[in-house]
Prior knowledge:
The protein has helices spanning 11-18, 60-70, 75-81, 87-96, 101-114, 174-186, 190-211, 218-229, 239-249, 287-304, 332-346, 353-367, 379-385, 387-402, 431-467, 474-486, 493-496, 506-520, and strands at residues 6-9, 27-32, 38-42, 45-50, 129-130, 143-145, 150-152, 268-274, 277-283, 308-315, 318-325, 407-409, 415-417. It is of the alpha+beta class. It starts with 5 loop residues before the first strand and ends in a 5-residue tail after the last helix.
Amino acid sequence: MKSPESNPVGYQWLAEHFNLVTVPYWRESRVLERGARRIVDREGKRTDYFPAARNPGDRVLGHLEFALKWEGLHLELLRELMPMLDAGEVIALVRGAPTGRYARLIWWLYETFTGTRLDLSDLKMGNYVDLLDPEIYVTRPGEQAKRQRIHVNLLGTVDFSPMVRKEALGEWNEEALRERCQRVADDYPPEIFDRAVRYLYAKESKSSHEIEREMPGQKRAERFIKLLEQAWLRDFLTKEALVELQQAIVDKRFANDGWRSVIDEQVYVGETLVPGQERIHYAAPKPEDLEELMAGFLAMARKLLPERITARIRQGNFEQVTEILGDAPVSTLVAASVISFVFNFLHPFSDGNGRIHRLLLHHVLARSRFGPEGIILPVSAVILNRPREYDQALESFSKPLMERVEYTLDDRQRMTVTNDTVDFYRYIDCTELTRITIDFIRETIETELPQELRFLVRYDEIRRRMDDVVELPNRQADLFVNLCRQNGGKLSKRKRDLPEFAPLTDAEIEAMEEIIRAVLEPEGR
Length: 525
């Protein structure tokens, strides 16, 4: 489809006029040479065409007001732009419309990003206006900028705040998902549920490692399970806790004593095409930028989680000290997605970032009391079943980012990033990442979790009926069931030749296969 004749306006005009380089923005505005307004959505980007009468011409502040009104808040560009503006023009704009929404936003943005206090008096009256439009973005209650009477409702801080756009998340009901999760658990007796908790921790550990194409030894797998169990109890969102976490899950030879900036390591995600030639999918922040970015990340994470309040409850002569949660600043699923994925993009360690990313997803769910106490949702199993969608969500940031990152690789495939990239990571658009996380958790609750709980019940029935055919030792019986389950209820010819099954007759194997198919058939496995 041919694009109509048009010219850039708003943020795109400002970027070209001031030669600003940012991660490609989700929205672009253009003015038509002729014709009426139209909107084109293509490959996740929206282009808004306006009639010629809307063109601000060559007025810088006119384009800035236009952008703030029609295109949302492009903080990365605004951070670079504000020091380039003429202070006198900003003062004149504000004095001409001191209570105007966009004049106030420009005033606040200018003072915030330049550190310069303009010769303007504080506003003494008028309603507060939102920095982020809550009709467009997921917002946090935030803080008040009294001087300009602005409600700073960012998810994080002005120096580090991921963005999530509401419209692109689709329809979903968090409270309904919470209730559905609890109902699934309530459908099973406590003894089954207690077994399920341990089983689900083991399954999540296995699936999370498989996503990274890793097969950990038994000790490392057990350590990861223990860390998952602590998701309900510990605060992992501190530097000390994250470093301890990384040291616990990776080979000691590749563990870090702090962020990877301590050893000045640049990391990237790529694939080897042939020896000595890499295809780079993602470059993490430069080591010298990591301390600042991780401090921003941890500050943001604390703002997104509900406050834990110690309460004293008295009943008669007894007083009980308990911990209750304050109001959630944002949706739990939004917080879980943003915190876990942004951590992954910052890649603060030499190894283990992907596993910690998924552990943090569980940690945020647990800290916000999403799901029955102590349970872990087998989200990684769903990710394993939908790898392309997971990769596409990651690429929603990594692909546009890599259009801007300049780097070299030496003969040992070590990367050096050669341009200034720190601002690229401050305001990551987490919209698609949040959408897919909500969808993964929905499938986990509605499909994966019930299937796993049903399987535990049916497994007991399978074992009872198998014992009527032949009483196998537990290890061989478990192996037989798992191999048949993975192969549509039948032991493959290659697995039939395993020494564990050598003593069995063909008739015994066929009888046990039939039992497995008959019991598991209702769940379609």
